[in-house]
Task: inverse folding
């Protein structure tokens, strides 16, 4: 992505601009990359500092409940649960906080009610039978709830809720043996948790919110940009005219797809949180987040091909296949491959831009058509020309991987 | 992996066995796959049930502290913290429980001490200044600790510890404003948490333990097996003699590498937990778990190439390049490619076996050498033979991706 903006302009200039302008452009490109990196980090670091401040703020707000006497006497010592809730529920994104907060609130409600029911049942068994019956209930419920966590869908969405469910049920059921006024205890716990969740949600939604949906949106666009960067880099530096040595070592574009390969976990995570978020900015409540995951799969598929192509290119360089037995033909294939790469890169860049701006990618189809044309051209040349085998193989493999 | 054992034997038989034996073998293979799947699930489900029972057991054990009077009076109502600890700390693997338990214990100790110190400092500020000073402390510490969670290494290993650190510090500092006997409260909390952690560790280590290290070991071997399965399947079903149509649709081996591609998160996770585990079975305490991650990277790299090769093969099938202009040559290349695939598959299978049994992979080198020989043969044929271009291209691309 880093070199994206620069490279697009340069393609048009290269044929006629004199050497010193090329050198200037090269320097400018390096500066652009550095600026882009600082901008990227500079965008992340303040947000992280802001998040840290938000957590501190929410905790300080909640501790006021404890310091102020009238509030304290209303809730008793269980206002500690509010502090606990804030620490555990507060997440980086709004969706994360919402997901955890709702999980916590509903799981507490459900488990509290079940716990009270278990207590009522157990008291029927008499003084001796009560702890035994309570133990059996706790054992059964904990075991069943734990087993349900192995179901992938529950694991992904309600894992935290199940933990809180087991926790609350055990606490209520076990403590019901000694605590007299169980209803008021349950009431206090519920209201403190509600206060804690409300504080978290307020802080995370209204103080510089970070939306999981927007993060996912940006991540998918960035991944597309990374692929575009690879193709443009390859088209320019490997198939381009000015590169004689074909030495790709140390080129940054060769690694631009690496981060894409391992992005699945983050995408799943963000999509899962985004589902909980209300409408915000350009995204409505039921924005089709699953579509981003589908795009993600396709992007990773492409990144895989790039990885294979990469390996192939570096192997081809090392074994140094006999080039240039027919320079004219080599140049033709090279030009076509270069065009393929550049046009594919442009099309991908266009798609990334379209996703980012939520517009119809009008010119991407044009670029793709050009890339397909170039691919067809390479394929049509192959059987007719009488060039030597190894060079055609190199290009043909590259071509088939690209197309 | 499923078809691994069966395919190894069949290769030798195919040339001479009559049709009905082949059909029988095919049926046997399907049965083997089904049995293997049941065995695999059958291995997982009882372990999951066992884990659920273990959680229930640990919770029941800890609730005894509450039911039995002498124990209850020793610890007071804070024995509830023991229940909470068990629910939160208990993980599927021993390493996970250890990691969470130690994180919880040390974070509580450290934050408790700091909280007491903050309380001592705040009391110096007088009755009015105390809550203000306490709020400032809580704010600062929570913000700093939250920011530290963005450091990838801390996130990976101590995320839970940092949460507990913020939690305990806030609880101790905030409640110090109203609770008189803070030392005894801290003492109670610490001992209940210690009891909770000890119960979890005891249950998870001594009752049918699941070791994260062993899971990682098995996962890496399984991933290698999956790759081996792909190569053997390709060698047999695509390059093999009996398959005339080259129709690969619906073949299970084509998808065997899919799970490998997304295994990074699980591997990182398991390696992180394995680091905490004591020596067990064939693994010592400081077993080089990082090496598994390196093998994992290489395996995923290979899976990526397979993915690209897969795409290429299905495209090649669809466009239906003009085959068989020189049947003899096609057969030669096909045989060589088949040999390459089969030998690579055998070598990978051998490596998986070697990892599983922790033995030196003595015959893998032999198989790999054969595969390299076959690859070299294909390469040496290419420039001399006068076959038509498309077919050579297909095989050459395949060959270069394989080698």
Result:
């Amino acid at each position: 992505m880093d070199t994206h903006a620069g490279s697009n302009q340069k393609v048009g200039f290269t044929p006629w601009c004199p050497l010193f302008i090329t050198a200037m452009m090269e320097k400018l490109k390096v500066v652009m990359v550095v600026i882009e990196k600082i901008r990227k980090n500079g965008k992340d670091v303040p947000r992280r500092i802001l998040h840290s401040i938000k957590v501190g703020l929410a905790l300080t707000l909640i501790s006021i409940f404890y310091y102020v006497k009238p509030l304290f006497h209303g809730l008793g010592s269980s206002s500690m649960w509010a502090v606990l809730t804030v620490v555990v529920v507060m997440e980086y994104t709004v969706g994360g906080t919402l997901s955890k907060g709702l999980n916590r609130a509903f799981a507490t409600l459900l488990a509290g009610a079940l716990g009270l029911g278990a207590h009522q049942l157990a008291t029927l068994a008499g003084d001796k039978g009560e702890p035994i019956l309570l133990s059996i209930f706790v054992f059964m419920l904990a075991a069943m709830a734990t087993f349900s966590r192995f179901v992938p869908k529950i694991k992904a969405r309600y894992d935290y809720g199940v933990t809180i469910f087991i926790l609350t049920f055990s606490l209520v059921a076990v403590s019901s043996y000694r605590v007299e006024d169980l209803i008021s205890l349950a009431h206090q716990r519920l209201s403190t948790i509600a206060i804690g969740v409300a504080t978290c949600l307020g802080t995370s939604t209204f103080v510089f919110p970070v939306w999981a949906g927007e993060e996912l949106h940006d991540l998918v666009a960035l991944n597309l940009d990374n692929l575009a960067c690879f193709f443009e880099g390859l088209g320019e530096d490997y198939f381009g005219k000015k590169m004689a040595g074909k030495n790709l070592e140390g080129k940054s574009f060769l690694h631009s797809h690496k981060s894409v390969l391992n992005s699945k976990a983050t995408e799943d995570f963000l999509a899962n949180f985004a589902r909980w978020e209300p409408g915000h900015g350009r995204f409505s409540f039921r924005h089709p987040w699953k579509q981003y995951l589908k795009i993600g799969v396709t992007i990773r598929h492409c990144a895989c091909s790039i990885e294979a192509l990469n390996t192939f290119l570096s192997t081809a360089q090392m074994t140094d296949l006999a080039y240039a037995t027919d320079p004219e033909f080599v140049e033709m294939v090279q030009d076509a491959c270069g065009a393929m790469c550049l046009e594919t890169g442009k099309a991908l860049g266009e798609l990334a831009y379209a996703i980012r701006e939520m517009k119809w990618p009008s010119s991407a189809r044009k670029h793709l058509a050009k890339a397909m044309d170039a691919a067809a051209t390479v394929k049509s040349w192959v059987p007719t020309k009488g060039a030597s085998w190894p060079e055609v193989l190199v290009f043909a493999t590259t071509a088939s991987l690209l197309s």
Remarks:
- The two ends of chain B are 21 Å apart (CA to CA).
- Residues 55 and 90 of chain B are 7 Å apart (CA to CA).
- Chain B has 15 helices and no strands.
- Residues 1-16, 318-324, 383-394 of chain B have pLDDT under 50 and may be disordered.
